[in-house]
Design a protein that fits this description.
By secondary structure, the protein is α/β, with parallel strands linked by helices. The protein contains 17 helices and 13 strands. It has three domains: 175 residues, Rossmann fold, CATH 3.40.50; 137 residues, Nitrogenase molybdenum iron protein domain (Rossmann fold), CATH 3.40.50.1980; 118 residues, Nitrogenase molybdenum iron protein domain (Rossmann fold), CATH 3.40.50. A five-stranded parallel β-sheet has the order 11-10-9-12-13, with helices on both faces. The protein is globular, with a radius of gyration of 23 Å. The structure holds iron/sulfur cluster (SF4). It is an enzyme of class 1 (oxidoreductase).
Length: 461
């Protein structure tokens, strides 16, 4: 905190150093995706420290015990390779915990050594360490490249490669691959599809796994998650919709290439237009009409926007997070007449720059945005030092800048370590959009009330 006070507005060109990254490590995304498969035990092939970090970050975000194994690398495995540790771990996990599936992801160390998960998995099977009917799936997730979003995407593809198949008999269902989002958002996608009468297979689906009820009884494998049978029939579906370009393109393209299941990649349905595009796509792909109940929810959101945009118009916002979340959020911010002044995403991609240019082209401000390893919260802070904003939107790590600069913070994205609600209440869809609007408005108006002189301190807006 004290160090942040030394952040200056003098921005120097950096070639390599990242300070306060707007991202986290690949295996965290892989572990989260694996939790969205029923009866699946994630396993981190690396040191205990890596696994402790992945598990604790997910545990602190979801406030649930996150189960995962580790290959527990020592000096020996670091030099000679982790095959023996992984085969022992596979044997122990199936013997002690009896999952249906083990989802192995690599780490920086095992990737640097050059451990080959395909070869080790085959050896584990040949050695009789994988019981009849049980499955190993795996994904390569070296964290010196990419981010938690890359890791999520890689494990999604690993899940599909492990199970998805085609019988040739259409199942009449639509595949949905949600990006790295909250379980509450996945539940909202399911609710909207059910309202339209669309039968879906959603992979991964962490609803009920990382946001389950307190029952007084510990369950290592909760009821939620996509089942193996569901995933196995994805090759027979009428199409696949990916929600988030960065996290789902590989999975969508895999199903298209392997099983000729046509894919559509959309942004996450956050905000009015992004949700419109999602609902329209569902309608076009399935032919199902949009029910009155969904039109009603949309109308409520439009009503809120028209009632309150006068209080939000012209307010400047700085955002940090994942591109799949940021782009629709920025679209919503612009819709509200607010200014997305500064946006950073640790996850890189040319589409981010292109889309940001498109979204901000009519905004009356020289908006700054950047993606990739050097697009960090330090840079965001420097931009803010030069010209402050009215609101911050991003994960818990932004609270230091919020405190240092005395700017309200709306927590959104991953990880959120010091608040609750994200697991249970969606920001997807029209009702989720209404919740976002409520939070944005509350942050702006609370600050206005705090700073208002006695003569302008009004009871009613
Ligand atoms: S960045 Fe690499 S070394 Fe660090 S926790 Fe992630 S996988 Fe492990």
């Amino acid at each position: 905190m004290a160090l942040l006070r030394h952040t200056t507005g003098e921005i120097k060109e950096r070639k390599a150093l990242t300070v306060n990254p707007a991202k986290t490590c690949q295996p965290i995304g892989a572990m989260y995706a694996a939790l969205g498969v029923h009866n699946c035990f994630p396993h981190s092939h690396g040191s205990q420290g890596c696994c402790a970090y992945h598990r604790s970050t997910l545990t602190r975000h979801y406030k649930e015990p996150i189960v995962a194994g580790t290959s527990s690398f020592t000096e020996g495995s670091s030099v000679f390779g982790g095959q023996s540790n992984l085969i022992t771990a596979i044997d122990n996990i199936f013997t002690l915990y009896d999952p249906e599936i083990i989802a192995v992801h690599t780490t920086c160390l095992s990737e640097t050594i050059g451990d080959d998960l395909m070869q080790i998995s085959q050896k584990a099977k040949d050695d009789g360490k994988v019981p009849e009917g049980k499955v190993l799936i795996y994904a390569s997730t070296p964290s010196y490249v990419g981010t938690h979003i890359t890791g999520y995407s890689n494990m999604v593809k690993g899940i599909l490669k492990g199970f998805a198949a085609k019988t040739g008999t259409p199942n009449g269902k639509l595949n949905i691959i949600p990006g790295f989002c909250e379980p509450s958002d996945m539940a909202e996608v399911r609710r909207l599809c059910a309202m339209m009468g669309i039968d879906i297979i959603m992979v991964p689906d962490t609803n009920g796994v990382v946001n389950g009820p307190l029952t007084g009884k510990y369950e290592m494998f909760p009821k939620g998650g996509a089942t193996r049978e569901e995933i196995a029939s994805m090759g027979d579906s009428m199409g696949t919709v990916g929600l988030g370009r960065w996290a789902t393109t590989d999975g969508v393209n895999f199903l298209d290439a392997e099983f000729k299941v046509p894919g559509t990649i959309l942004g996450m349905p956050i905000g009015l237009q992004a949700t419109d595009r999602f609902i329209e796509t569902l309608h076009k792909l399935t032919g199902k009409p949009v029910p009155e109940a969904i039109t009603f929810e949309r109308g409520q959101m439009v009503d809120i926007i028209s009632d309150y945009d006068q209080y939000l118009y012209g307010k400047k916002v700085a955002l940090a997070g994942d591109p799949d979340q940021l782009l629709p959020l920025v679209e919503l911010i612009v819709t509200l007449g607010m200014i997305p002044a500064y946006v950073v995403s640790g996850t890189a991609g040319k589409y981010f720059d292109d889309r940001m240019a498109e979204l901000t082209k009519d905004v009356p401000y020289d908006c700054k945005y950047k993606c990739g390893p050097l697009a960090d919260m330090y840079l965001l802070h420097q931009w803010i030092k030069n010209d402050p904003v009215d609101l911050l939107i991003g994960n818990t790590y932004l609270k230091y800048i919020a405190r240092d600069e005395d700017i309200p913070l709306l927590r959104h994205g991953f990880p959120i370590l010091d608040r609750m609600g994200h697991q249970y209440f969606p920001t997807f869809g029209y009702t989720g959009g209404m919740r976002l609007l409520e939070k944005i408005l509350a942050a702006i108006m609370d600050r206005q009330d705090r700073d208002a002189p006695e003569t302008r301190f009004e009871l009613q807006m």
